[in-house]
Amino acid sequence: MAKDNLYIGLMSGTSLDGVDAVIIDASATKLLAQTYLPYTEELKQKLRTLTQSEQTSLENLANIDVQVAQFFSDATKALLVGANARATDIKAIGSHGQTIFHQGGKYSMQIGHGAIIAERTNISVVSDFRMSDVAASGQGAPLTPMYHQYLLNGKDGVVINLGGIANITQVFSDAVIGFDTGPANTLLDNWIKRSKQVDYDREGVWARSGLVDEHLLKTLLADDYFQKTPPKSTGPEYFNLDWLKSYLTGDETDADVQRTLVELTAMSISKHIPKGADVYLCGGGVHNLFLAERLAYLNPHSEMMTTNDLGIHVDYVEAAAFGFFAKQTLEGKTSSLPLVTGAKGPRVLGATYAA
Fold first, then answer.
1. What is the pLDDT of residues 266-278, one digit of tens each?
2. pLDDT per residue over 192-216, tens digit each?
3. Is the same domain home to 125 and 200?
4. Could you say which DSSP state residue 85 is in?
């Protein structure tokens, strides 16, 4: 591997399941190596408690920040070992960190401090990407539309990331629009965990066994977030079990709720897919085959593909994006799209920590 020509991207999303780590080439369109390091159950629980209760001590927050940074460092080391690469081969790491609080236009906090990662890996780190956009009156999210546009390489199309939160990027005639459509895996995962004590609904099998509760679906879709116009962003701080329970009567079966949540995700996304658009799916929700089927059914005039067709594996698009953003930052180039985030102007994102 050529020295100083490669970048590492690190990402952990709102599903709080672990760290995706990739090595990308200088063009940022090819994965040279990738790995996934799942969080320990202990760390998962700490993060769930922190994000769901939104109450903690400063000491506890500091301790978790350090633990997450150490975990991101471990993911980096595992990636390098698996790729037979050295720290000196890598120009920089772009680390998204772990979001524990996001309120678009006001504040966005990602833990997993870049200085600790730089010290432990001996590689320079760019992190804290969202706050420069927020400081410029932007939502700070989604940031990935610029990378989606880059991957499309001049083609029109729609990229949909099915993470904990779903976001959509529309690229047409060099204009880019992107925003969070609402929940994807976050509600599906939390509901099955509450109901069946498993982490996720494998391939959507449990949801498929239920029936859509039409009244529940109608009331969920009437929520204020779905009526907002872009730019807009959200997170599990809003779409969580407390939010869901506020709409439940208590007469629903658990399986019907899961089925209805799949339809909520599919419908809240589909209303923003232009007829006949080429659609590329990515993110963990791609593995929910039932959700993917519902998206295809609701959009019969669009061709449903995945980002594998653009050269980046569905599970690693966001990690690759933050490697790309690190490259942009070091080159003094902007990574935000004001039309997407609502910021006053494009900004060079992230704080840099030298090795």
1. 999 999 999 999 9
2. 999 999 999 999 999 999 999 999 9
3. no
4. -
Shared domain check, 233 and 208: yes
Mean pLDDT over 105-111 rounds to 95
CB 212 within 8 A of CB 178: no
Sign of CA pseudo-dihedral 142, 144, 149, 152: negative
Together in a domain, 270 and 252 = yes
For 152, the domain range is: 145-310
Tokens of 41: 């159950």
Which pTM was predicted?
Answer: 0.94
Query: Sorting pLDDT into bands at 50, 70 and 90, what band is 96?
Result: very high
Regarding whether 153 and 136 lie in a shared domain, the answer is no
- Please report which helix (H) or strand (E) contains residue 320, including its range: helix 317-330
Yes or no: say if 334 and 125 are a contact pair by the CB < 8 Å rule: no
One domain, residues 343 and 258: no
Cα gap 20→34, rounded to integer Å: 7
- Whole-angstrom distance, CA of residue 163 vs CA of residue 285: 6
Dist. CA 87–CA 304, nearest whole Å: 38
Total structural domains within the chain:
2
> Cα separation of 129 and 141, whole Å?
10
